Amino acid sequence: MTEQYLKSIKVGFIGGGNMASAIGAGLIRKGVLKPDNVWVSGRTDRTHGFWRDLGVHPTLENNEVVCNCDIVFLTVKPHMLDDALATVGRRADEKFESKLFVSVLAGVSLDVLYFKLLAIVTSPRIIRSMPNTPMMVGEGITVYCGRNAKPNDLELVDRLFSYIGMSHKVPESLMNCIGGLSGCGPAFAYLVIEGLADGAVKMGVPRPMATKFAAQVLVGAGKMVLETGQHPGQLKDEVCSPGGTTINGIHVMEVGGVRGSMMNAVEAAVNKTNELTSRIK
Description:
This protein is of the alpha/beta class. The protein is 55% helix and 14% strand. The protein has helices at residues 3-8, 18-29, 45-54, 62-68, 81-86, 94-97, 110-117, 151-162, 175-183, 185-202, 207-228, 232-239, 245-255, 258-279, and strands at residues 11-14, 38-41, 57-59, 71-74, 100-103, 125-130, 140-147, 165-169. An eight-stranded mixed sheet has the order 3-2-1-4-5-6-7-8, with helices on both faces.
C-alpha cells in the first residue's frame, strides 16, 4: 500500500468536530491525504471555515460525503447517528455498496453499527475505532476492530492511523476499557500538566515557562517509558535519591492519593462508556 495510493483515496467525515479535525487535519498536515480528496459535513460556519482553510470540501449534506468518498468516518455524537444516516438514503449500485465505514463513536458496538448502516447499504463493511485528539500533532493512540471488513480494509485503516500515532487492532471486548485510558487520558494528562505548572507558579516560576516545562516533563517521561522499555516504577526509583527532593514530593503525592485518583478516573470513564453502550440500540 503505497503513499501514492493513500493520496488517491477519497476520505469523508460525517461530522466535522474535534475528532474529525484530529484525524483529518492530522493526516493532511502529515501530507498523507490530499485536501482536495477530503469531504466534511458540518452544521456551523465555524466548522466549515476550519475545513475550508485546509483546502477540503465542506458541505451541509451528509449524502454528499458518502457519495464522493471511498472511506467514510462517522464522527458525529453517538445519539446523532440515526439522524445523520437518515439524510443519506440507500442507493442500489455497486460503487455505493463498496464504501468502508469507520466509526469513532464511543460505546457504539459493531453489532449496533451494522444494524444502523443496513439503512443505507446491504452489507456494510465497518471498522470501529477509538482514537484520541493528540493525533492532530502526530502523537495519537487508536485501537480498532472490524466487522465484515476485508483484510485490506483493516490494513488501510491501520496505515492511516499509524501516520498520526500508535495504531493497534484489538478484540472488541477491550474497546471500552482501552478508551477509558487512551481516549479520556489526554484530559487527565492536561490536568496533571496544569497542576505541575500551578506548583511551579506558586514557587515563583512565570506561568508561560511553567506550563511549557510541565508539558515537556510529561513528553519526556512518556518517551523514557516507551524507548527504554523499563517499568515506570523503576524509572521513578532512579530519580528518587535517598532523603532527596523527589522522594519527598512523591510522598506528598501518595498521601494525596494521586495514584488512586488516576485509577479511579480510568475506571469511571470505562464505566460511563459501558453505560452508554448498554443504552445504544
